[in-house]
Amino acid sequence: MPDTTGKTITCKAAVAWEAGKDLTIEDVEVGPPRAHEVRIEIYYTGVCHTDAYTLSGKDPEGAFPIVLGHEGAGIVESIGEGVESVKVGDHVVALYTPECKECKFCKSGKTNLCGKIRTTQGEGVMPDGTSRFKCKGKDLLHFMGTSTFSQFTVVADISVVPITDKVPMDRTCLLGCGITTGYGAAVITAGHGGLEKGSNVAIFGAGCVGLSVIQGAVKNGAGKIIVVDVNEAKKSWAEKFGATDFVNPAKDLKEGENITQRLVEMTDGGCDYTFDCTGNVHVMRSALEACHKGWGESIIIGVAAAGQEISTRPFQLVTGRRWKGCAFGGVKGRSQLPDLVQDYMDGKLKVDEFITHRQSLSGINQAFQDMKAGDCIRCVVDMRKL
Ligand SMILES: NC(=O)C1=CN([C@@H]2O[C@H](COP(=O)(O)OP(=O)(O)OC[C@H]3O[C@@H](n4cnc5c(N)ncnc54)[C@H](OP(=O)(O)O)[C@@H]3O)[C@@H](O)[C@H]2O)C=CC1
Ligand SMILES: N[C@@H](CCC(=O)N[C@@H](CSC=O)C(=O)NCC(=O)O)C(=O)O
Ligand SMILES: [Zn+2]
Ligand SMILES: [Zn+2]
């Protein structure tokens, strides 16, 4: 392979030109990394519902044309001036939640949200306000600071974590979003640094995120782990990951009974923790109201569309139920992701089981279709196969 350091690379990428339209595979020019930037050759990327959400046009931050994708793993091709955290040849996972370790957020000890580049990331540009992608003479926007639907991408050095090369990248890519998000929500965000042993838990939505919450709940020794999903096929998935109960609100409720009442009855007054992994604001309300009076905590993970709002009677909070939420499970990517990779290597974290579908880069629109079909947990796209 010729040395590409300092040069623009032309490669294939799946470009979203307009909201609601299929992606098209294009030749894109990817500029060299500038100071504190890293150019990565992406080997594998997952497709997440958040990519579909932005492509749909419902994301208030969504703008076009853009290179989507935020669940990717690859190898560092070159680095810009001042980069010390990774080197050429490192296997890495891209981080849509960066970690600078020096901003107010990073130093607070209270959150994994990093403030350093959030504004430019939301605007779809690199921290210096410009794009590294060009196609047909036009600049393309970056997405979530990662843009993993391109064979080569450029990210800020705080948006990437080196990981062992002993784990295949079609697995590590999934730690870039869905698995880490659900697992972290249970073991980091819930309670004070993770849900307590014996806690009764309800998880709404058993996709990649919800199944990962189950894994975290099992790890922390939860009592009841009740999964609520309208898709009956998710029952066997939930059981495989360690759920103790499954309720399908579309078929299992008694006449006049609602899901909140059922969960309160099953848990002697309400759940200690509930998790929304659907993005449906009505489900979020049920999840909050199914919490135990006095201490029950509901964690919102699902992403709801622009204009959607949550509501409940304030009395629910007055009487001690708590609403919180998290991005990337509350996990600090550069500090904590290598530990999750180690958990996978030690057989303590399931990852392989999530891969139900695979596609080549040119099959990426089919990956979006697969995701909507209901039998897909995660589709992994091989970015080097056209
Ligand atoms: N906060 C964060 O950092 C992150 C948030 N997300 C968000 O998390 C959410 C979940 O992602 P993912 O697991 O990939 O999604 P999936 O669509 O794979 O899983 C959601 C599950 O919920 C089910 N469901 C839909 N409506 C209801 C309902 N009313 N009651 C109960 N179950 C329902 C779905 O059933 P069916 O198959 O029939 O639709 C599906 O089984 C998305 O909104 C995504 O954008 C994702 C990653 C990170
Ligand atoms: N742009 C959206 C917000 C989407 C969102 O909440 N993204 C999550 C990650 S979802 C991953 O699949 C996130 O990281 N949120 C924190 C953040 O700073 O964006 C909108 O405006 O609705
Ligand atoms: Zn995601
Ligand atoms: Zn920071």
Automatic annotation (TrEMBL):
Residues 35-162 form the Alcohol dehydrogenase-like N-terminal domain. It catalyses: S-nitrosoglutathione + NADH + H(+) = S-(hydroxysulfenamide)glutathione + NAD(+); a secondary alcohol + NAD(+) = a ketone + NADH + H(+); a primary alcohol + NAD(+) = an aldehyde + NADH + H(+); S-(hydroxymethyl)glutathione + NADP(+) = S-formylglutathione + NADPH + H(+). The keyword Oxidoreductase applies. Its cofactor is Zn(2+). Pfam families: ADH_N (PF08240), ADH_zinc_N (PF00107). Its EC number is 1.1.1.284. SUPFAM superfamilies: GroES-like, NAD(P)-binding Rossmann-fold domains. One of its GO terms (biological process) is formaldehyde catabolic process. Keywords: Metal-binding, NAD, Oxidoreductase, Zinc. GO terms for molecular function: alcohol dehydrogenase (NAD+) activity; S-(hydroxymethyl)glutathione dehydrogenase [NAD(P)+] activity; zinc ion binding. CDD domains: alcohol_DH_class_III. Residues 209-341 form the Alcohol dehydrogenase-like C-terminal domain. GO terms for cellular component: cytosol. It comes from the Eukaryota. Belongs to the zinc-containing alcohol dehydrogenase family. Class-III subfamily. NCBIfam families: adh_III_F_hyde. This is S-(hydroxymethyl)glutathione dehydrogenase. It comes from Friedmanniomyces endolithicus.
